[in-house]
Each structure stands twice: as C-alpha cells, then as structure tokens.
C-alpha cells in the first residue's frame, strides 16, 4: 500500500512545509513535523514501525499524536508571549 511507504510521508511533510510558507501562522508546520516524524519512523524500521505499518488507523493515530505534540511545542516556543495581546481602544468606524 502507498501509505506504508516512508517517502510518501516525506513528500507530504514537504508539501505541508511549503503550504506553511504560503500561509504563515504555524498552522501547517505542526502537521509537517508530524508527517516528517512518521516518515522517519517508517524509514528507521524496527518492531514499532512494523506494528504501525500493519494498520492504517494506528499509523494515522501516530501521525496525529506527533502533530499534536509538535503543535504544542511550537505553541510554547513560538506562541503568544505575555504582553503581546493587542488591545483595541477605539473602533475603526469612530470619526
């Protein structure tokens, strides 16, 4: 199956990283890191990778969890800092 190939996940990671450049905001970067982690896991092999390759739902679960962890780390490192909240004191429609 195509979803079992490591290079498919690598291409997906690259496509998501390019999409992140086109639509910045760290929206797709977490998914790109999750896809890259999945590609590296499949490339490295081992018993855990063999167990994941046997089941598409488990492989997608690993991708989702890796993406979630990547997003949380990105949010902590690059997210909104204290004092960066924009407070609007007047309306754009005010004269």
Question: What key attributes describe this structure?
Answer:
mainly alpha, 66% helix, 95 residues, 4 helices, elongated
If you had to describe this structure to a student in words, what would you say it looks like?
The mean pLDDT is 86. The protein contains four helices and no strands. The chain is mainly α and 95 residues long. 66% of the residues lie in helices and 0% in strands. It has one domain.
In short:
The protein is mainly α and 95 residues long. It contains 4 helices and no strands.
Structural class: mainly alpha
Q: Average pLDDT value?
A: 86
As a percent range, the share of helical residues equals: 55-70%
Low-confidence stretches: none
Tell me what portion of residues adopts beta-strand conformation.
under 5%
Tally of individual domains: 1
What is the N-to-C order of secondary-structure elements (H for helix, E for strand)?
A: HHHH
Tell me the Rg in angstroms. 18 Å
Please specify the SSE layout and strand pairing:
Elements: H1 6-22, H2 29-44, H3 47-53, H4 56-78
């Amino acid at each position: 199956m195509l979803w079992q190939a490591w290079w498919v996940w690598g291409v997906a990671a690259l496509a998501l990283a390019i999409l992140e450049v086109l639509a910045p905001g760290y929206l797709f970067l977490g998914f790109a890191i999750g896809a890259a982690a999945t590609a590296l896991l499949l490339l490295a092999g081992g018993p855990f990778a063999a167990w994941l390759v046997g089941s598409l739902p488990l492989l997608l679960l690993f991708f989702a969890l890796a993406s979630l962890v990547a997003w949380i780390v990105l949010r902590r490192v690059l997210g909104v800092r204290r004092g960066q909240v924009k407070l609007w004191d007047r309306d754009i429609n005010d004269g």
